[in-house]
Amino acid sequence: MSRIPLVAQSQDIRAAAGPLPEVLIDNIELDHLPRPPSPSTGVPSGLGVALARNSRDSSSWHPKVTAYRLTFVAVTIALGTAKAVKASDSAVSVTIEWVSGIVILLLAFFFTQYEIKDTAKPYWFFKADMMDGVRALFQRFEINIPHYDTEERSLEVLIKPKHPPVTGYRIIVTAAAISFGMAKAMLSYRGQPTAPTTVEWAYGVVVTVILYSLGLYETSANEVLPWLFTTDYSLQVATGGLAIGFTVVHLIGLAGVGWWTSAWGFGVAAVIKSGWGPSTEAGSPPVTAFDLFFQRVFTLMWVVMAIVMGIGGGIFVMCLILYSWVNMAGPAILKGIRFAWRPFRRLLARLLSIDLDADVDDDDDETLVNYTGSWTSRLTRRIQRILDNPSTGLQWAFTIATGVAMAVLYVLVHGVAFIIAFGWTSMWFYGLKSLWSQRMESWFMLCFALVWSGGASVAVPTFVEFGFTSHN
Questions:
Q1: What's the distance, CA 86 to chain centroid?
Q2: 46 within 8 A of 34, measured Cβ to Cβ
């Protein structure tokens, strides 16, 4: 028997069978292909998944209600409530806190890490959905509980990032722990008897159960709420953290400058309230007209210098700090407002049944801040057009206002300079008068008076000459 080549045999069979039908690879559902039997049920896993998908609504996803998850919630509620009830008994309260804070916490951590594995055993405790039994029980009473998808995805990624993603759910968990912890600490430091226990129960029971239940949706195969569980907000959090730190530093600076300015303000107010007259204390020596005059001059000079250098300098530094804060943290704050306004705008659109995005281009990320920016830019352009082509009346008004402002500023500056110069000169003259009115009992005092008088004689004309030079 002659052997026919394999290629010729395949060609004869293809010619006898005729053209083969085209198979579309895209239409093949891989889940319907046979797979090795499952070790737990003995049913092919692909067929089981197909039957489950046919009987469930793929548009809805909810986590499995397993025995482990129910046990965790029940133990959390029981221990938290028992600790709140036995708060007056220190021994019982500390024991419950130790059990819940160490033993239960460690067990829950390791069990949760074990639960996410596909081979977690016992199956009835970690993987079996108790809603299937509840659904079958209610069907006997002709009560149908809707089916939903419970397929979970693995949270392990093939390419692990350098840092874990900062999702919205993790931000909420962190913010809740910080806020409730700070609230309990503040209430405890203030000596509140029951408020700290209430806050601890609310966080340890209510908030913990809610966050745990919400976290189960993170493993949804349908990626439920991707903005909460999938989107990485690392850049926003880093930017916001820098903005908060920068703001805290500026607030500390503003507090220091505010304290400086207020101290000078209180000093000026105290001097003004004390009056300009001589001291009226019992046993005080009589004050001559010469002494009273110089006392009032010194008081006036101190008040002017305190207002100009103390209060005015503080206000100027405050303006510099605010200007620096707006330039550095302003863009981050506006970006945060945009980020917070977007879901609020969508919520208003749903509640009011209006289209708030009618004149908004989503590609440009237009939000409330953009509306404000466009409004201010239009106002700035309008003012610029008015200033470029002013009318005759506006020109006269601007000229008069400028002249009045320059005159007031000129008088204030030269008045302050005159008061300081006159006070400085009067101080030296008063010192000369007080020094030479005393008796020189030693050659040392006489030499000191001569040297000091010579310095005063040089300082007074020099300062007066400087004042007149700056005036001219």
A1: 37
A2: yes
What does the alpha-carbon distance between residue 432 and residue 449 come to, in Å, rounded to a whole number? Answer: 8
pLDDT in tens, 21-51: 444 444 444 444 444 444 444 444 444 444 4
Q: Which amino acid is residue 132, in one-letter code?
A: D
Token digits for 144? 């149908």
Closest CA to 31 of 17, 43, 46: 46
- Look at residue 128 and give its three-state secondary structure: coil
* Residues in a beta bridge with 44: 37
Query: Cα dist. 96→73, 81, 111, 179 in Å?
Result: 16, 10, 20, 23
How do residues 275-331 score in pLDDT, each as one tens digit? 665 555 555 666 677 677 777 788 888 888 888 888 989 999 999 998 888 887 767
Distance CA 209, CA 261 (A): 50
63-72 burial, b at 16+ Cβ within 10 Å, e below that, comes to: bbbbebbeeb
Can the peptide bond before residue 461 be classed as cis, meaning omega within 30 degrees of 0?
A: no
Residue appearing with tokens 């005759």: 392
CB 149, CB 61: distance < 8 Å: yes
Q: Which two tokens stand for residue 412?
A: 């204030």
Sign of the Cα pseudo-torsion (382, 385, 387, 392, in order) = negative
Spatial CA neighbour of 146 closest among 49, 53, 55, 50: 55
In angstroms, the Cα distances linking 110 to 115, 129, 156, 393, 403 are 9, 21, 17, 82, 80
Q: What is the DSSP letter of 357?
A: T
Residue type, 67: A
Q: Which two tokens stand for residue 433?
A: 């008068």
Distance CA 124, CA 66 (A): 8
* Radius of gyration for the chain, computed over Cα atoms and rounded to the nearest angstrom: 42
Q: Which residues pair with 61 in a beta bridge?
A: 149
Q: What is the DSSP string of 250-319?
A: HHHHHHHHHHHHHHHHHHHHHHHHT-SS----TTPPP--HHHHHHHHHHHHHHHHHIIIIIIHHHHHHHH
- Report how far residue 161's alpha carbon sits from residue 454's, in angstroms, rounded to the nearest whole number: 78
Residues shown for the chain: 472
What pTM value is reported for the model?
Answer: 0.52
